[in-house]
Amino acid sequence: MKLLVLPGDGVGPEVTAEALRILRWFAEHRGLTLEVTERGFGLVNWERHGTLMPDETWARIEEAEAILFGAVGSLDQQAVIPPEERRKGSLLRMRKGLDLYANIRPIRLPEALLEASPLKPRVARGADFVILRELTAGMYFGTPRGVETLPDGTRRGVNTHSYTEGEIARAIRFACRLARERRGHVTSVDKANVMEAGALWREVAGRVAREEFPDVTLENMLADNCAIQIARDPRRFDVIVTDNLFGDLLSDAGGAILGSLGMLPSASVNDRGQALYEPVHGSAPDIAGEGIANPLGAILSAALLLRWSAKQPEDAAMLERAVDRALDAGARTADIAAPGEPAVSTSGMGDAVLRELSLLQGEA
Ligand code: NAI
Ligand code: MG
């Protein structure tokens, strides 16, 4: 597998290094074939090349089968880099350019982290669902967009929420296929009550599910209600499918169940067999460089890579199991440690997962 590693800014390099150590373990012990290329992304490129996206890096991105991405973003960047240049090197360009329309965000609360969850144990225990967020259309891409000055001198900001039937249908199909591998239940989330595009979303979702996935049950839910249900009764969900904007918000709300952004993985895939794997969190400038970031979001993203790109579901499950066992054994980075509980470093958490992998390999 051709793997492109883009560590990015802030804690990105710290957490990707741990995910890469894990993948190298699978190469060494489980027959994963890996051809790793690494390139800068973000501020390092600006400092080194005077551009956020050298052509050669973009060419690598376009040809990669799998991309392991850290995080991007820093205050310096926002201050000094012109907007045009920022767009060239943006994550949005990568998502749109590769047509990575299906953003998979699993949210699963390990039993060991029940105490770290802000929800009551009786509500949170066993929460295990996936949010499928449409990633290449909707509010973040629709046109017209911009800020215009009106005749009276005041300004008006415009963004457009736009979805074609085709864009909706492929997201729904992806969600239904995911549900087939899980508990067979899809919740399609929209605002059909107040948005025409939402009514179309609901209509297409219903048709696709009925005609192509009679074995999957589809439920429709309004987005505002979904936000409440995630906090009230997260166990009722199996697969949630929704648009780009609602998916952004609801997946962060779902992530709150785990108590830390550092735990959450994601995969973004297209229909040409390419995928981008990244932890959900950003560059965390407040803790960057201290070696204390939680690498589990990145490591669990590597598990998604094993499942989706390497097509090794057993290896993926083995890695997820190793993460659970490392947590069971008490490994905690600062963000998930209880008050007074000792915390391990970023690489210490990587060590703990590698230790469990070796043990699991020995038991097999
Ligand atoms: P953030 O996710 O970087 O940080 C939010 C909070 O969570 C901070 O307190 C941080 O310390 C903590 N945190 C994040 N990851 C952690 C980890 N692995 N372990 C322990 N704690 C962790 O979001 P924020 O602060 O809103 O944004 C910082 C920068 O990141 C901005 O420039 C933003 O644009 C960028 N960003 C990039 C994303 C990406 O690359 N996909 C996603 C979100 C934000
Ligand atoms: Mg977000």
Comma- or semicolon-separated keywords:
364 residues; alpha/beta; 10-stranded mixed sheet; two-stranded antiparallel sheet; 14 helices; 12 strands; 44% helix; 20% strand; globular; binds magnesium ion
In short:
The protein is of the alpha/beta class.
Reading the helices and strands in chain order gives EHEHHEHHHEHEEEHEHEHEHEEHHH
Net shape: globular
Give the low-pLDDT segments: none
**Share of β-strand residues:** 15-25%
Overall structural class, as computed from helix and strand content, comes to alpha/beta
Through-space gap between termini: 25 Å
The total of helices stands at 14
The profile of the biggest β sheet is: 10 strands, mixed
Strand runs, count: 12
Q: Could you give the order of strands across the largest sheet?
A: 2-1-3-12-11-4-5-10-8-9
Question: Can you offer a commentary on this structure?
Answer:
The protein is an alpha/beta fold and 364 residues long. It is built from 14 helices and twelve strands. 44% of the residues lie in helices and 20% in strands. It has helices at residues 12-29, 43-49, 55-63, 75-80, 83-88, 91-97, 121-124, 165-180, 196-212, 223-232, 244-255, 296-308, 313-328, 346-363; strands at 2-8, 35-38, 66-71, 102-108, 128-134, 142-149, 155-160, 185-190, 217-222, 239-242, 265-269, 275-279. The structure holds 1,4-dihydronicotinamide adenine dinucleotide and magnesium ion. 1,4-dihydronicotinamide adenine dinucleotide binds at residues 11, 15, 71-74, 91, 260-262, 278, 281-287, 293-294, 297, 335.
